[in-house]
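Lab channel / #folding
Pinned by the channel admin:
"Please post every new chain as: sequence first, then the structure tokens as a reply. Keep commentary short and put observations after the output so the thread stays searchable."

First post following the new format, from NK:
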Amino acid sequence: MHFSLDKSKIPQHVAIIMDGNGRWAKKQGAARLFGHQNAIEAVRNAVEGCAELGIKVLTLYAFSTENWMRPQEEVNGLMQLLVNTIDAETSTLLKNNIKLAAIGDLLSLPKNCQQQLQEAIQKTSSNTGMTLVLALSYSGKWDITNAMRLIAYQVQKGTLSPEDINESIICQYLQTHNLPDPELMIRTSGEQRISNFMLWQLAYSELYFTDVLWPDFRKEHLYLAIADYQSRERRFGKISEQLS
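Reply from TO:
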């Protein structure tokens, strides 16, 4: 199916809200954590599919700031799963020349998670292929608030004047300052909202919603999303005639 994709119109950056693990588990009559455990194959498919298509950046919304409000047992299970998965998959990332990165309030993660994450980021830092970004303890409002605070410090120190603050300055202080904005955002499980994800960065992204629950997501679903993206006209406020 992906052979019909236009290789010249592949998005540089794809972001995915991986939704539906809990509902998937419920359908199996199992605990929510069972859904999270079965989501790892979907992550592998998404990473492999994006790398094969030549996508430069894949960001996965793995854990939002709001997810801390979930039952403690689920949060603990998720964190342990995260550590185990990073540990198990680092060698695959190295073999496939994939660089790991993370955005979010990483200091709020348990110490063993922080350590495992930093080790994997360090080990893969010289890889030159795709960058896989994990959004952990991340939310768009947190990201913008954090950027405002950092900018305010610069103004306070006198290294930045209020008149100098523009969009590019704000971008420099966001967690994604070294990444292109996503051209395509995919959300699974049929929910049609962005749930506080990359609020600034998604300003001109194409949004694609699928009813597929995340543990069932495979490469063909990724190809369908990209084919849909390629069928759209990206105008950025202009009219069609101005683009031709």
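NK: The CA atoms of residues 90 and 120 lie 6 Å apart.
TO: also worth noting, The chain is about 45% helix and 15% strand.
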